[in-house]
Amino acid sequence: WHVPTFDPQAATEIGGDCMIGHLGIEFLERGDGWLKARMPVDRRTTQPYGRLHGGASVALAETVASYAGMMTVDPDQKGVVG
């Protein structure tokens, strides 16, 4: 990782007023080659029939992948976006 430390609470708070926060995505921890987050299945993330919305699943996957990708590149050389 090019980011030697990871503060899950800070990462969660940074996204508080954008899609990450609106969907309730929380970063939990990271390890060697992995990043863990969660998202609630509630009125914000379900379809009208109460099932998890596929778009919410994709938003979670893209969010985690972007953060992990961002931490694996040298920020002085490259940037990562979804």
Defining key terms:
single chain; 82 residues; alpha+beta; 37% helix
Distance between the termini: 18 Å
Which segments are poorly predicted (pLDDT under 50) over 5 or more consecutive residues? none
The residue-averaged pLDDT reads: 93
Structural class assignment: alpha+beta
Q: Number of DSSP strands?
A: 2
Silhouette: elongated
Largest sheet: 2 strands, antiparallel
Report helical residue fraction. Answer: 25-40%
Portion of residues in beta strands equals 5-15%
Write the H/E string, N to C. Answer: HHEEH
The Cα radius of gyration reads: 14 Å
Number of helices in the DSSP assignment: 3
Structure description:
- This protein is an alpha+beta fold.
- Helices cover 37% and strands 13% of the residues.
- The chain has helices at residues 8-14, 19-22, 54-72, and strands at residues 26-31, 34-38.
- Strands 1-2 form a two-stranded antiparallel ribbon.
- It is elongated, with a radius of gyration of 14 Å.
